Amino acid sequence: MSEKLAIDGGQPALTEAMRGRVPKWPVVNGATAERLKEVYLSAEWSFNGAYEQQFGAEFARYHGADRGVLMVNGTVTLECALAALGVGPGDEVIVPALTWMATAMAVLYVGATPVFVDIEPDTLCLDPAKTARAITPKTKAIIPVHLYGSMADMEALGDLARRKGLAIIEDCAHAHGGVWAGRGVGSIGQVGSFSFQQSKTLTCGEAGACITSDAVLAERLYRLKHIGYDLGSAQGKAQSSPPAGLICHNYRATEFQALILLDGLKDLRAQTEKREASAAYLRELTAEIPGVEVQARGRRADVQGYYVLMFLFDLKQFGGVSLGRVMEVLQAEGIGIGGTYGPVYRHALWNVGSSGYRIAEGGCPVCEEACANRGAGMLHHWLLGDRELMEGIAKGIMKAQHQLSRNAE
User: Fold this and answer.
1) Residue 36 and residue 19 share a domain
2) Per residue in 285-294, pLDDT tens?
3) pTM higher than 0.85, yes or no?
């Protein structure tokens, strides 16, 4: 392959016509628009409406849990999960070093302290062995994040949590529809937290949900998001005062959001299957390209709900250029690729080193390397494209690797 790189004036691997076949996200359809009009005309927009209750039940059932509680976003779902489990001031909560900032921010919201632990180099998810070493007498909970859809090792983390008497809150913001060893994501820990923000694989623009099979936790979650009142009082069936000592909020979602999510849930299984097929094809197409791997699936993942298809590059095989340069070259080839999140503890909020927050002993070198020199990926809607689009993506990566390595000779 001797084609000139597009960034140097050559023709891009993905033509404009091929890029035009990248599916738009979110998917918009007329049937949902008509149903939204019906909600509008009903004048019953919020709260605790029929669609909200239906979605909570169906979403939980989809993932193998008994109860689902819809809220306004996927940050407050984590906050409420922590509060429902009794996590508060003086407690420590283990979070992965590589995640969106909300995972750790929720810990602050309940007055607890996040402890940042390194990740595995292949899945980019929380490392169970390093998690075990980070546990102290103050540790109350672990929040594994199924990052970009790859699932954390719930077997090892679950065993660890049971031995140490710790709670597990699964952060499933990237993993809708995933299945680990026959169990749906979010149903393995005490609580599963999901996000329905605009870019997620199930979305209504903004919302979140908690799922659980613990009736007591479900009741607490509902009270936490509904200013202390239980479902019965919300539906006018009974009067119930807010419980003393539980700081509750107005985190209620609307019927508009619930309806969009219900309609989207009908398509989730087929979309997940399509993404899985495309990801498998891209793994096959890129397997022989030097210096290119794809983020590993969870070790016992039956179904992976891809949020991002994350490539892991060995920059030595790309002529020793920076990760930023590789991304620029691939973007010029027409591939919609971007970097990982940065190490969450580097956010200015944490001020690690002069605050009470800490990084687990040994630091987080795997996370640092993944962010700086290895990881770049494509959002999930690219995986809804056809096989020819996947072939074009692989061609662009092969072209970039070949030309960059050749330029360095």
Assistant:
1) no
2) 999 999 999 9
3) yes
